[in-house]
Structures are given as structure tokens and as C-alpha cells.
Amino acid sequence: MWEAGNVALTGLVTGGIYALLAVGFTLVFSVSGILNLAQGSFVTLGALVFYSLVTQAHWSLPLALLGALGILTAWAAVMEWLVIRPALGQISYTNLLMLMGGFLILYEGGAFLLWGSNPYTLPPFTGAQPVAVGGLKVPTQAFWVLGTVLVVVVGLWYGLSRTTFGKAMRACSENPMAAELMGIPVPRMVLVSFSLAAALGVLAGAVILPLTSLDFGTMADYTNQGLIAVTVGGIGNFFGSVVGGVTLGVVEQFLSVYVSSLLSTALSLVVLLLILIFRPEGILGTVRGSRLDVAERGIGRGFLAPAIDPRIGRGAALVALVGLALLPHWLQGTGLLRAVNITGIFCLAVIGLDLLTGIAGQVSLGQAGFMAIGGYTAGILAVRAHVAPWAGTLAGVALSVAVALLLGLASVRVRGMYLAISTLAFGILVESLGNGLSITNGPAGLLGIPNFSLGGYVFASETALYYLIWGLVVVALFAALNLIRSHRGRALRAMHIDQAGAEALGVNTVRYKIQAFVFSAVLASIAGSLYAFSFQYLSPAMVGSQTSLDLMTMLVVGGIGTGVGPLLGVVLLTFLPQVSQSLASFKLLAEGLMLVVFLRYLPGGLWGTVLQGVSAASWRWWRASRAWTDPTRLDKEADA
Amino acid sequence: MKGPVLRVESLSKAFGGVQAVQEVTFSVAAGSICAVIGPNGAGKSTLFNLLTNLYPPDRGAVFLRGQRITGLRPWQVAQLGIFRTFQTSRVFPHMTVLDNVMVGAHRWSRAGLIEQMLGMGRTRSEEAAMRARAFALLEVFGLSHRARDPAEVLPLAGQKYLELARALMSEAEVLLLDEPAAGMNDAETLELAQFLRAVQETGRTVVVVEHNLSLVMGIAQQVVVMDAGRVIADGVPEAVQRDPTVIAAYFGKAGRA
Q: Which residues in chain A have Cβ-Cβ distances shorter than 8 Å to B45?
């Protein structure tokens, strides 16, 4: 009996922290429509700054708390003013979501450089001995956590419901344009919401630090938990967020004590996915209808990749093919071939992701989940059942297709930002299964995976692997580019821009979405299998949620929706860190920075920017010669 | 006189307590231009949304050549041959003008997924046919010199024409046009009337919701007048113009304004 009480208490304390996170999500979302994936960073950053001020600057606890609050809320305000505010109304909400993902990576990278990868903790604020109430043992710090949560929730509730300022904030969330017309300074409200959310994070981080230990990697965990909590409660619903957070903490604690500690995350993610798909407004939320005969036009500039002259394209492709064929010869003895091969594996996954996200507009933040399915299926079959690698790879593909069908069906019900969260949850779910199941050998990883082999030939050397991997990349790219340029590609892009508009043209959007999901999942699955075979080892972290974000960053940096461009992003973010260890430690920071900068300023990515530069030079000449208006000329080219 | 291509039977739809469309029944002869007119809030756009199944009706049904289409998905309705445009311009802004027209050919694209991935089979011939047809249509609407521009840079009238070109690209039997003249000046409206006549000459049926009465009366063979969700008159333009109920509900108000 007392044991259950202690479990409930621990759950309540964690739940309190989740509640603060969820409220932070809700505040920012209500006012700006942004889902702040960087929210969890402020818990960890708050704790780390607090720690440094206490132990290194020897400030007293209250002073250190004020210091951490001051530094980080100011930082959040500056970022809002510098990056987020100008981006609002310029880029779509899904891109804003990814932008916040960029901030998350950026903060992880920054914390890693400043504090290293060690976990930090502090002694309790007051009295180290737990207070015993009957059989209930209450750590003194739990009073601090619960007290803080209570004060913050009541204070915020009062502030939002009773003051003019709170009413103005709520008006922004109902209808920002009307609020603006009523004289409410909406931008300032957004700034306040971001700072307030950061302050909530810092408070949570400071009070929880004595009960746990935090390192830079915990940021994503806090973001994920906060996201689950706020989705359960209903995004934008203040009391729903509090209830969602507390419930999640308690349920998770009971699950981990009485069911399985490794699977508690997986179970809560399953719940999240079910809620997202069947009740996206949350358990306590209410849904708002929308008009279907008016285009829900994604705001912001779109990117239209300039057309390349087919002759130039064909010539460049030929040169690239010859170069690829000769590359192993040139690289002989440099030891770079391994990095080239890993780059090729990620190219495969990114080619599929570009079709899914760049062309069809279905944002997937869980693409590495399919790599994990492909890698683990092939790896486990090879290690435990001695199934031939090619057969294992195909089995992985089959399983991935089945899962992609499910996710594709989910994407029929769930759109835009909610789909992005669902796929994110899917990726984390696969990762947590990899960590929690015994068949995958948990976080230690699956050892003893053989080399890839086909009909007796073993791909043991890097050169043999090179031709296998890059051969597949060429085939995949050929298929993807053909698809993008075909009528189906056009219909997919139309669906991306305006779903109901595309349906009015006769586009079966359900079928096309599922096709795009399956195409991308097959490529990611094959990539995952090859990843496992080429390392002869696979761990959940190699194909976890961070890898999903990596893939998205490669896509954005290279040029989302441009077909060839994303491969540039892969080279930049896979090849370079593989080659240079000193670059590798800056990888997270650089990646986050690039994600933010490209989403905000260069929507065409590297490829689009280069292409635009080149085509701007020749544009006038094309227009002058009316090259594009003569249909027969283009047809001749297409037939040639 | 050919038989009706489109038949609407006691279609009704309520939003909350508001009867947006109430017991609407009419049919449209094949190859004719039918105009649906009525004051603001008469339920014209709702009627169009019901015809293409953007939302399901509470009661009643729609038949295309005798086949019941109520309950199908919007894309199925389009595939069967009813193609609509929207009141607000609905071009795909970040696609080129040419692609915007070509995507209208979706109804008759037959190339399969594998063929398209390999770039073989029907893919190439179909693509060439689509491009030639699209250029021909853009030429008709005077947009061919902008084929490679993003559609969003076209002026409003250009976007409306682009939507018409796309609708014609579909080769659909019945075109539903929701206020095609909205935002056009007089000269452009006159031009539009010419286009609609030309469309009719190709044997297609056009149903048009329009506020511009001079456009409607000049080209339509049938006028359906709606008020407060009901059909209050249905007939040839001359008869409808003389109908006292119509004058009271529509012209009367306009005259006093």
C-alpha cells in the first residue's frame, strides 16, 4: 500500500515538471501557433546554468535561480525578436515547427560544447533526510517541486483569466488579426509567451536538478514528454496541459515500476499516437471546424526550383556517373571510402524523404524509424536465425511497408503539424522499443551482424560495398527524379500545396499519400539494413530520433523538394563529420544553426540557391528567345 | 434537345440551425449553359459544394447521366466528369503556370507508378500530349508567354483564366464554375462570356454561379434562381426575368438599393 503511495508521489513530482513543460507549450502555441520543440531545452539549460552559478560562481540558491531566470528568459526573448518574429507569417507552421527543432539541436550542441557530456546534479535545497509520513517517504526536494508547480499554475491561471494582459493574450490565440485591430500588440505578446515559457522551463530545471541528473541529451527527452503531456491534455488548453502533465508523470511511473521501466516510454508513445490520430484536439480539448471550399493556403514563400535545360541535365548526369564509377580508384589508400559509403546510405534515406516531405508535403520527423525497422529486422534475422542478408533486407522492407501503410493511413486523418508530431512519436517509439526489447540487445546494440552477401559473394571490402550502395543510390535517384517529373509528381505537388484543391482535380489523395509513405519507407528501410551490415553492428541511437532530425536537416540544407539537392546536404552533414573528428564535436551546434538559417533565409537550400544564381544569369536570354513558349521545341527535346 | 446530364433531387443541407440549401431540385440539359443566381447567402456556393461532395447533403441526391454520385469522394466526382472551380482563386501558387494547367489532365492520365518511375511506357507520350494540349489552352487564354512563371505572380484575372484552362484540360463533361467573373473588369467579363460560349461549342455543359447578371442573361439557356436556400424560379432567362417572385427577391432589392 505504502509502496504504491511512494510510486504515486514520485510520479506526481515528475508529473509536476511535465505540467510546467506542457503549460510552456500551450502558452507559446496559443499566442503564436508555434509548437516550440525547443521547450525541453530550457529545463536542461536552466538546470545547467543554475548549477554553474551555484557551484562555480558560488551564488546563493535564490540568487542563482534569479540569475538563471534572467539569463535564459532574456536569451529566449532575443531569439524570438531576432529569428522567430520575422519568420512568423513568412514560413509555414510546419517549417516553423522544424525551425524550433533546429533550435533544440542548436541548444543541445551549445550545451555539449559548454558543459560537455557529463551529467550534473545538486544536493537538495533543504535537509537531505526524507520526511516520513507513515510509510510514505517524501524527499524534501519534492516539497520544493510540488510547491513551485502549485504556485506557478495558480499564478498563471490568475494572470491569464483575471488581468487585462491575460485577456489580451487569450485574444491573440483566438484571432491574432482581430486582436491586432483591437490594438493589442501581438508581436509583444508572442515575445512574452516565449520568455514566460522559457522561465517555466528554468524553474522546472532548477527544482528538479537535486532529484535527478541532467546532461545535454536530456533536452530532447523533456521536449518529448512535454509534447506527449500537452497532446493528451489538448494543445492550447491551459488546464488540459496541467492535467495532461500530471497524469503522464503518474501513469509513466506506475508503468515503469509495475510493468517495465524500459517500455514505459513506448507505452506512453502508443497512447500519444492513438490520441493524435483519433482525437487530435486532446482528451479535454474541443475541435474547431474549417471551411473546405476555401484553400487553406500555407502562408509564406514557397520555393519553385528553376528548370534545368534537359541537355545540361543529361550531360551533368553522365559526368556524375563516370565520376562515381571512378571514385574508389581515386580514393584508393586515403581511407575515405568508408565515409563515402555511409554518405551513400544516408543519401538513400534522404531521396525517399524528399519525395515524401519535399514533394508530397507529408512532413516526417521519424524517418529513421524505418531505418531502424530495416536495420534491426535484417540484423536480428542474420544474427539469431542466420537468414541471408538479402532476404533479411527484403523482410525489413516488407515490415516497413506494413508500418508505412499504417502511418500513411494516419496521414489521411492527421495533417500538417499534427502529422509531424505523429511521425516524431513514431520515430521515438521505434527507438524506445530498440532500447527496451531484449531481442535487439537494448542500448548496448546488436553485435555480430555479418557482412552483406549476395549469392555467395560477400561484400567485405569497402570498394564492393561502395558499388552496392552507390548503385542503389543511382537507381533510387533515377526513379525519384522520374517520378517527380511525371504527372504523378505534379499531382503530389498540387496535393502538397492545397489538398482539397487537388481532390477537386480528381487526385485520390489517400492513395497518393500512402504511395509516398511507402516509397520513402522502402528506401529508408534498405538504407537501415545496409547501415547495419556495413557496421556489422546496430544500436538504437544510430537510428534514433536524432537521426530523423539529421535526415530532415540534410534535406532542408540541401534543398527540400529539389530532387538532387538534398544529396548535397547529406554530403555536408555526413561526410564532413565522418572525415574530421574536430568537426564532429561541433556537429550538433552547426546542424542546429544550419537548420534555423536555411529554413528562415534560404528555403531553396544549397541547391536551390546555386541553381537560382545560375538560372538568373541565363533567364533573360531564355525569355528573350521565347524558348519556353514554343511547344514543339520542348516536345522535340522530350522525345530526343 | 438532349436529355439532362445533371439532375439534382431535393438536395438539403443545414449548418446548425441555418437551412443553407433546402429541397433544391433541377436538372441541366447536356451541352447547355445553366446559371445559378441569387442574392448573397442564397446558398449557391453551398449547392456547388454539395454537387461535388465537398460535404455530404442531409437529404437528396445528385445524378450524373443517371448515375448517383452523392456519397462519393470529391476526387471520384471529378474522375466521373464533374469538374469545378472555386470562388476564391485556387491555382497552385508555387507551381508554374504550365504545371497548373497540366495537372488538370489528372482525369485522363493513365501511366502507372512503375512506368513513371522508369520514365517508360505511356509516361512520355502522355506527357508530350499533355504539354501540347496545355500550351494550346494557354495560347487560347493568352497566357502562353507566362508558362514558366510561378502561378502566384499572375494578376487575379489571369489566375481565373488559368483555372478555366485547367478545367478545360480535364476534358470533363460538366464544368461547375463558381463566380468566374469575380474580380474581373467589364472588358474581361465580356471576354469571359466569349470563352464560355466557345466552351459550350465543344459540347460541354457549364453550370455557373454568378453575380454579374448581364453576363448570365446573355449566355445562359437556363437560369436557376435561389433565395434563402430554395429554388424560386427555373427557366429560360426571358421567363425568369419576368417572374414576379424573382423580381421581388432579387431585382426588387437591387432596384431599391
A: 293
Q: Tell whether B118 and B202 lie within a shared domain.
A: no
Enumerate residues 6+ apart whose C-beta is below 8 A from A335: none
SS3 of residue A265 by DSSP = helix
* Minimum distance, in Å, between the CA of residue A490 and any CA atom of chain B: 6
Domain boundary among B127, B153, B179: B153
Buried b (16+ CB within 10 A) or exposed e, A36-53: bbbbbbbbbbbbbbbbbb
pLDDT of A587 > 90? The answer is: no
Rounded to two decimals, the ipTM of the complex is 0.92
Return the pLDDT at A300: 46
Give exposure, A586-600, as e/b (b: 16+ Cβ within 10 Å): ebbbbbbbbbbebbb
Least confident of A23-27, A146-150, A166-170, A634-638: A634-638
The residue of chain B nearest to residue A494, with distances taken between CA atoms, is B92
Number of domains in chain B: 2
Q: Which domains does chain A have, with CATH numbers?
A: 2-258 (1.10.3470), 336-603 (1.10.3470), 612-640 (no CATH)
* Tens-digit pLDDT profile for residues A133-188: 877 888 889 999 999 999 999 999 988 888 888 888 778 777 777 888 888 888 88
In a shared domain, residues B68 and B182: yes
**Same domain as B78, residue B193:** yes
| Selected residue of A95, A291, A293, A299 to mutate for chain B interface (largest B Cβ count, 10 A) | A293
Between A and B, how many CB-CB pairs are < 8 A?
140
The verdict on B172 and B226 lying in the same domain is yes
- For B:42-81, CB contacts with A below 8 A are 45, 48-49, 52, 54-55, 73-75, 78-79
In terms of domains, do B108 and B164 share one?
no
Q: Does B142 touch chain A (CB under 8 A)?
A: no
d(CA B31, CA B58): 29
Are residues B234 and B161 both part of a single domain?
yes
**A297 touches B at CB < 8 Å:** yes
Boundary of a domain, candidates B113, B132, B153:
B153
B107 touches chain A (CB under 8 A): yes
What pLDDT digit, counting tens, does each position of B108-124 carry?
Answer: 888 889 899 998 888 88
- A424, A104 Cβ separation under 8 angstroms: no
Q: Same domain, yes or no, for B108 and B75?
A: no
Asked if B153 has any chain A CB less than 8 Å from its own CB, the reply is no
If you count them, how many residues does chain B have?
257
CB distance from A488 to chain B under 8 Å?
yes
Nearest to B147 among A486, A501, A628 (CB): A628
Tell me which chain B residues have a C-beta less than 8 angstroms from the C-beta of A494.
Answer: 92, 95, 103
Question: Which of A382 and A131 is assigned the larger pLDDT?
Answer: A382
Set of chain B residues whose Cβ sits within 8 Å of the Cβ of A498: 90, 92
Domain check: are B137 and B208 in the same one?
no
CA distance A621 to A615: 10
Measure Cα distances from A296 to A173, A269, A299 in Å.
18, 29, 9
Task: Compute the half-sphere exposure of residue A407: CA atoms within 13 Å on the CB side of its CA.
Answer: 33
Flag whether pLDDT at B206 surpasses 70. yes
CB-based contact (8 Å) between B135 and chain A?
yes
A487 to B109: CB separation less than 8 angstroms, yes or no: yes
* Interchain contact, A486 vs B111, CB within 8 Å: yes
Q: Quickly list DSSP for B135-150.
A: HHHHHHTT-GGGTTSB
Tell me the shortest Cα–Cα distance from A158 to chain B, in angstroms. Answer: 34
Whether B107 and A488 lie within 8 Å, measured CB to CB: no
Domain boundaries, position B147: 94-153
Q: Considering only alpha carbons, which residue of chain B is nearest residue A635?
A: B128
Whether the predicted pLDDT of B226 surpasses 50: yes
Q: What is the pLDDT, as a whole number, of residue B251?
A: 58
